């Protein structure tokens, strides 16, 4: 069964309104709600009937659900908990529930050596979601998560205290199995609240609080206003540090189209899209944003619908729950993820910022540019005779025929290998950092790569009628001296209109650190330069 905890101030009456259309059965200090859907013919039945002349029996699907809303007292405070069964969870209003309630219970109940399942979201300009499962109880170190970048969204494992449940799965809700008995629901609710209030998780999982939930309603309101302002600027053509993604891990075997609907959308038939993209969404509400005809309440009511190809099946979710965004405000960094606002721990943020600053170029290599994108900027740089265009040079290391590694985008006579990226919103920079790391690794370890690099450089010298570049590269049979080379990452960005800062997103800095630190450990000089787009 599954249990959720309502936020402070949410009454039993308020919580009940989330379940309109369900039959209500009052109980002491609570209410039981039920629903039963009509019979439906499964979509897979017709193709099976087409395969045989025999009369296949009539088959139907049914679904039902129930919710038990219960008011309980813990110490001196009243709380409302909601148990859901079957399909009832589809009717929940996420806004009334305590975020990460179940996750906190799991963290306080499961030893870090007794984990079985973990869901994480890697936060960058695009959000990557992973589900990691172990065949037996496993320590957290074996799950291979990045504590600086991964947001923990689900935890499952064996409880260290069997009085509540033997096995627990926690996210916003807590799911568990144990034999019911008289007074069971009230007893488990009180136990769950007590475990939720503990802080023992800080010993085994101290990194969890690097990203913590924002609970101040006034601050949340300010952040939501900032979100609306950023969406409005994006509708007018500005870049936005945001993305949109489906909230659940998708079935890779199912092809799905995406539709956006709700208040502020363009009237008429809705467009369909292959993937969830922030700019597609903004295009659907562009007019309403520009003319101020849309509110945060409207955005929270909008839906993203996944339509299964060749099927009537659809899955809908609130768009607000699918928005991912980063906002810097009052010296603090906040992110919107899965419908909740999170604050990044200031000490953790300072560590990341200090690391990033250590990579910044001491003297600019590039001037601000009017180029609208990376391709236009590369064309602009072609005029510089001190640089050689190596863009789209494809080299395959030993044992590979389709790796197509780019050694760099530009090479200088000063032995600078320059990698460029137009880091507009919804564009992940992870590939940029990875490209530089792979190139450096192959330069140090693969003679064939070095030989092809020299060959391609000579070809480009002939194309662009330049000289003096191939001779700065090491001979193919000689391992280069990395201290003689500089690896430069040029990131194109526009200034933030709210604070006039020229920066890259926080989680892009987090994603940068492993690759650039590894390059530095090889003894290459490595730099990052933010190139202003004007």
Automatic annotation (TrEMBL):
Pfam families: DUF6119 (PF19614)
InterPro entries: CHP04141
Name of this chain's protein: TIGR04141 family sporadically distributed protein
């Amino acid at each position: 069964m599954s249990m959720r905890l309502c936020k402070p101030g949410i009454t039993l009456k308020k919580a009940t309104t989330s379940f309109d259309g369900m039959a209500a059965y009052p109980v002491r200090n609570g209410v039981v709600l039920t629903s039963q859907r009509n019979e439906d013919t499964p979509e897979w039945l017709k193709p099976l009937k087409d395969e045989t002349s025999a009369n296949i029996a009539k088959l139907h699907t049914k679904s039902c659900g129930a919710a038990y809303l219960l008011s309980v007292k813990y110490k001196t405070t009243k709380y409302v908990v909601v148990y859901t069964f079957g399909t009832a969870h589809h009717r929940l209003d996420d806004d009334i529930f305590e975020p990460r309630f179940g996750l906190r219970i799991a963290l306080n109940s499961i030893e870090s050596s007794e984990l079985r399942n973990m869901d994480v979201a890697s936060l960058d300009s695009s959000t990557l979601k992973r589900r990691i499962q172990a065949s037996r109880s496993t320590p957290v170190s074996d799950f291979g998560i990045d504590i600086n970048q991964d947001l923990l969204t689900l935890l499952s494992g064996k409880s260290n205290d069997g009085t509540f449940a033997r096995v627990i799965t926690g996210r916003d809700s807590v799911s568990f199995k144990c034999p019911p008995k008289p007074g069971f629901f009230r007893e488990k609710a009180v136990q769950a609240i007590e475990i939720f209030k503990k802080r023992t998780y800080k010993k085994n999982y101290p990194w969890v609080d690097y990203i913590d939930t924002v609970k101040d309603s006034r601050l949340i309101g300010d952040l939501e206003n900032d979100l609306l302002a950023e969406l409005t600027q994006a509708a007018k053509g500005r870049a936005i540090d945001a993305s949109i993604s489906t909230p659940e891990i998708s079935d890779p075997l199912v092809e799905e189209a995406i539709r956006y609907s709700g208040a502020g959308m363009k009237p008429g038939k809705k467009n369909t899209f292959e993937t969830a993209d922030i700019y597609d969404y903004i295009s659907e509400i562009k007019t309403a944003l520009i003319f101020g005809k849309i509110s945060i309440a409207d955005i929270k009511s909008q839906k993203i619908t996944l339509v299964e190809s060749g099927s009537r099946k659809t899955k809908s979710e609130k768009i607000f729950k699918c928005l991912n965004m980063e906002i810097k405000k009052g010296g603090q960094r906040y992110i919107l993820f899965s419908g909740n606002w999170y604050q990044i721990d200031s000490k953790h943020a300072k560590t990341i910022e200090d690391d990033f600053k250590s990579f910044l170029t001491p003297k600019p290599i590039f001037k601000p540019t009017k180029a609208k994108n990376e391709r236009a900027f590369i064309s602009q740089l072609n005029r510089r005779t001190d640089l050689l265009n190596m863009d789209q040079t494809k080299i395959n290391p030993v044992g590979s025929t389709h790796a197509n590694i780019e050694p760099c985008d530009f090479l200088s006579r000063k032995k600078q290998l320059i990698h460029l990226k137009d880091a507009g919103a919804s564009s992940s920079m992870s590939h940029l950092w990875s490209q530089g790391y792979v190139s450096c690794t192959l330069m140090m370890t693969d003679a064939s790569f070095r030989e092809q690099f020299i060959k391609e450089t000579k070809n480009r010298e002939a194309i662009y009628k330049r000289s003096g570049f191939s001779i700065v590269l090491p001979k193919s049979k000689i391992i280069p001296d990395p201290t003689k080379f500089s690896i430069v990452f040029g990131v194109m960005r526009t200034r933030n209109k709210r604070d006039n800062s020229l920066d890259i997103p926080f989680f892009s800095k987090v994603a940068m650190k492993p690759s650039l630190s590894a390059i530095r450990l090889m003894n290459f000089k490595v730099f990052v330069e933010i190139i202003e787009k004007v």
